[in-house]
């Protein structure tokens, strides 16, 4: 068993062997030996008298029924599943993704206790909605002195263009989250409110799927409350905000370089939403549309996952490249609903916390059920006097900063030197309204596994609430972050932090079995193409192109290695090898055409520093796939991960030619698997056409280039044999021609044969078929540019003869194929084929 993050294929420490006669009771005693709560802090595993809490007692007794080796094997399998299917995250400021660090122990909460938490979270969400309604409406609370008007008006999250805008659907908040921790007395307290664009719900879903897969017997036996009803209610709440009866809903993302993009893709796929970016949206006639390959399609609701001031560069932040001009005007007109409305980040700011108890009494007529930390806004003279009296024992943070300011060392009253103390006193004297003071945070603890036993570690629990037609609905579970160190300060995802699933145990009855599948009579049968944004089509097209480029480089490398084993090489063999080397160099796969076959093959397969290597193309394909997470199956992710693993150089390099050839052949098998998955698993009405067209264009271009290099008038037998290998047609050729390789038949099979699935002719025919199946935007019945270009090339190829075909014509076909790719980009993708794609975004930032 391991409470550490699941690791791909690695058994957790301390589980390889168990003591002789180690049964369930002995295992449980060994796991809990020496466990004790930290002084002065409540703990989830043990009560104040040191006994196991009932929920954990039931969980550990169930878990102890499994042998250590079985638990270790399951967790290792879960780690491989996380890695292979791309369940990942990006820590803020990092360029690369990390495997999602799910710990093996869930956080357990009894159903009765959860009901009190859920009621408090729902109340808090309703309170913040009422405050937002006033702040962007009448402003009565500020006039009555119930909240500081200067702090609200000066907050950068107060978006003045939204003042007086009635939120479409009647709500500012559609999705709310609260970060919770237990106070020293064991009661739950709110550490931070999340109203801007709360993240973590997708991670909670991922945690649940992984844990239910790893420990199905324990999960089923404990009657854990299911998450699906919450997500169904949230989706219904978004739909209810729309004007049209069958609305189109989009999740508005900042793109694949967002640190929460993976969870956004998970949510979009799970909820059936269109994952869109600002470039996908267009405001026309005050309506909002998504740019798709079938033209503009109206969108009715946007679930916002970017900061509010980035939504519209015309009226909000003019530097934003994440939003769409005109969105605020569309909100004014009620043409699109948005959850959450821009400007909701205002109530995350620290200055509001001191006023919440009184505001709850005023607006809701009841006491605040989930208190926050005792807080004082220093702009109020009476509150400032209290702060000055208790200065040394309080923590400070900026009044207008979002609540993540609570996750800094200054929030704990620790580490203040003389200079920092003097600075704070100066701000209190000159600009006291810029500061908020509160009691320091010390988190309670929950059990994790350190390799041999359970140990207490601090945690933060994020709980989610969704606005539904029936009111606020709270997710029965949440997103838990647990530190790997005993430091009891709040934690954010990054190094040394893991996630935990949250199991709410059903109170008094078996947890309801539910899913997102609605009753059959609620959904009409349709056979229409799904929504395909132009940006997604662009990424699909380039996914196919990069995979085909990787395959071409790998095949060329395999041919180099396959011919390198002869003790003495004939002159024509050396000439063929020189052509292979030259082409690898021209394609950027190797730094030079000179060197040993093994050295060149290592570069061509595994050198990520060479822009044209197989690994570089596979990484580019992975980047395109990262922007398509909601559209790709788990099998596709596993095959792509396996391809990268096959191309990456092993630690025991340098490798022999035989080992390199074996890796190349394994990689070719995986490219074939990826092509088969696209062929068999992708809906023909969706993105398949663009993946396939990307592959067809590149395969045809490569076949032309191979014919130019190895199929000239003076081609040797070795040249022609390599040419057949490069287009994977040696077996087909041998079945048709008994007498051996000859120039005209080889050229015909590579270039002109419409029955050979690797020929140029075959690729052009498939391009014509895919284009014919795509919607046309022309109303005059005339063919669009890609269709015209493909038809012209198809006619030329059909009329050509291999025996008299000039190589100049083949070179012209190669250029025509590039023109076809450009025409497809100009017609179907945003900004044309020169638009920035995911692999170039990092250089533009």
Features:
7-stranded antiparallel sheet; 28 helices; 845 residues; 12% strand; alpha+beta; Dna Ligase, domain 1; 3 domains
Give your account of this protein's structure.
With 845 residues, this protein is α+β, with helices and mostly antiparallel strands. The protein contains 28 helices and 21 strands. It folds into 3 domains: 107-349 and 463-477, Rossmann fold (3-Layer(aba) Sandwich), CATH 3.40.50.11290; 374-438, Dna Ligase, domain 1 (2-Layer Sandwich), CATH 3.30.1490; 537-844, no CATH class. Helix 10 links the parallel strand 6 (249-253) and strand 7 (274-277). The two termini are 42 Å apart. It holds the Pfam family Alpha-E. Residues 532-829 form the DUF403 domain.
Structural class: alpha+beta
Radius of gyration: 31 Å
How many domains? The number is 3
Shape designation: globular
Average pLDDT number: 86
Q: How many beta-strand runs?
A: 21
Count of individual helical segments: 28
Uncertain spans, ≥5 residues at pLDDT below 50?
A: 7-17, 403-412, 832-845
Helical content (DSSP H or I, runs of 4+)? 40-55%
Terminal residue distance:
42 Å
Question: How large a portion of the residues is in β-strands, by DSSP E?
Answer: 5-15%
Q: Major beta sheet, specifics? A: 7 strands, antiparallel
Region (Disordered): 1-24
Biased composition (Low complexity): 8-23
Domain Circularly permuted ATP-grasp type: 106-482
Domain DUF403: 532-829
